[in-house]
Amino acid sequence: MRLKDKVAIVTGGARGIGKAVSELFAQEGATVIIWDLLDAGVDTTKGINDNGGKAEFHKISVTDKETVHKTVADIHAKYGKIDILINNAGITKDKTLMKMSEAEWDAVIDVNLKGVFICTQAVAPYMKEAKYGRIVTAASNVGLRGNFGQTNYSATKAGVIAMSKTWTMELGKYGITANALAPGFTLTEMTDQIPAEHMETIKKQIPLQSAAQPIDIAYGYLYLASDEARYVSGICLTIDGGISR
């Protein structure tokens, strides 16, 4: 098992890519702490535990600094360590530049950028004390190339790549790695409503001619969170079927 006896926090772990990460990490021996605002986290946690894994669910917003810091302290008190932080929680509120409201800008920045900052700042002292840690943050290929109608989202995803590079410099001497992972178009509950003809257009733009499954992205997280990647830090691993070439 590649994560045997590790303790991993997965934000946004209730469904989609986060669920795939939570399930895979549990299969690889980690105790998985799922954070999400969606009640689906209850079912995801139950499924993991019913299948012999170890998981617990906390209904929590990554933007609630006081609750995040208290919950991290409680987790550390319970398990004695926090080995892995997967900053996966994120939202979209897409509009073109001329139509995007300040509220839509602020909401996406608050969750996707500030939330990552809050969670990482809460966990880092415990990793520093242990002289060990793996921080992996969800970027996106649109953080590398931009995307029509996603001024706010693209900005946050470019931002977390830069933050990861900065944390590599600040935290590396304590045995902590910090990386970003940039998925491409991935089939999740959020994409189920896309019309079939539009889906085919999207797929044709991807060199591999298909969308990713959540597990395709989860394996990337597994690598960066494992000891196999002990000398990998400050990178953005792109898993997008070649569209960002």
Q: What can you see in these coordinates?
A:
This protein is of the alpha/beta class. It has a single domain (7-239), classed as Rossmann fold (3-Layer(aba) Sandwich), CATH 3.40.50.720. Helix content is 46%, strand content 16%. It has helices spanning 16-27, 40-50, 65-79, 102-130, 142-145, 151-171, 196-204, 214-225; strands at residues 7-11, 31-36, 54-59, 84-87, 133-138, 176-183, 236-239. It has a 7-stranded parallel sheet, sandwiched between helices. Helix 4 links the parallel strand 4 and strand 5. Helix 1 (16-27) packs parallel to helix 2 (40-50) and helix 3 runs parallel beside helix 4 (102-130). The longest helix is centred in the middle third of the chain and has 29 residues, at 102-130. The chain is globular.
Concise summary:
The chain is of the alpha/beta class.
CATH architecture: 3-Layer(aba) Sandwich
Tell me roughly what share of residues is in helical segments.
40-55%
Briefly note the CATH topology name.
Answer: Rossmann fold
Order of helices and strands: EHEHEHEHEHHEHHE
Full CATH superfamily name: NAD(P)-binding Rossmann-like Domain
**Radius of gyration over C-alpha positions, nearest whole angstrom:** 17 Å
Keywords, separated by commas or semicolons:
245 residues, alpha/beta, Rossmann fold
Question: How would you summarize the topology of this molecule?
Answer:
Blueprint: E1 7-11, H1 16-27, E2 31-36, H2 40-50, E3 54-59, H3 65-79, E4 84-87, H4 102-130, E5 133-138, H5 142-145, H6 151-171, E6 176-183, H7 196-204, H8 214-225, E7 236-239
Parallel strand pairs: 1-2, 1-4, 2-3, 4-5, 5-6, 6-7
Helix pairs in contact: 1-2, 1-8, 3-4, 4-6
